[in-house]
Write a structure and sequence with these properties.
- The chain is mainly beta.
- The chain has a single domain, classed as Sandwich (Jelly Rolls).
- The strands form 2 sheets. Strands 1, 2, 4, 7, 8, 9 and 11 form a 7-stranded antiparallel β-sheet that branches. A 5-stranded antiparallel β-sheet has the order 6-5-10-3-12, with no helix packed on it.
- The longest helix is centred in the N-terminal third of the chain and has 11 residues.
Length: 177
């Protein structure tokens, strides 16, 4: 009898409630609304002023921003840096420019490691395993708007994908590629 009653009670719950311990926006969980998130772009050539991410609904804290080389670059001495372009306010670079990305091989990565807003992202080659010890204490806060690439010298010839790990600072903040 107790088992039948328990089954009937479960059937009366909305489907999102069945996942015990899983935070969902449908459940109205405030913790989910400000929980750390991650988003990834499709692979493509990096072009100057290209919008990589669009932020709406409030500010976010950038926890990590990584660019991963999918297909190799040629000898073009491209450099990259990141720029925040808020919906209200002035566009500002949020990193220095990297060293050259010429001849970057598939599997190489560029990591944003902010000591200051002028710190150049770190390039780690595929031969180095693409590994970086990330012990950063500084975080970058960006408002509604976009995060763009600033590519110096010329577009990359190889394709890259970008991964953003972030924390919304308001429950309605979202990021899309």
């Amino acid at each position: 009898m107790k088992q039948l009653l328990a089954l009937l009670m479960l059937l009366c719950l909305p489907s999102w409630a069945w996942a015990v311990g899983v935070l969902t926006p449908a459940a109205g969980d405030a913790t989910f609304m400000v929980a750390e998130r991650s988003i990834e772009t499709p692979s493509k050539v990096m072009v100057n002023a290209d919008v990589v991410f669009t932020i709406t609904g409030g500010a976010i804290e950038i926890i990590e921003l990584v660019s991963i080389c999918v297909t190799a670059n040629d000898a073009t001495a491209s450099t990259m840096q990141w720029q925040s372009v808020p919906t209200v306010g002035t566009a500002t670079t949020i990193s220095g420019a990297t060293a050259t990305l010429a001849s970057a091989t598939a599997g190489s990565a560029v990591y944003l490691a902010p000591a200051t807003l002028a710190t150049a992202p770190t390039i780690v080659t595929a031969a180095g395993g693409g590994l970086l010890l990330s012990i950063q204490t500084n975080k970058i806060i960006v408002k509604d708007g976009t995060i763009k690439l600033v590519i110096g010298v010329g577009s990359t010839t190889g394709t890259w994908r970008h991964v953003l790990r972030y924390k919304p600072l308001s429950p309605s903040a979202t990021v899309v590629p």
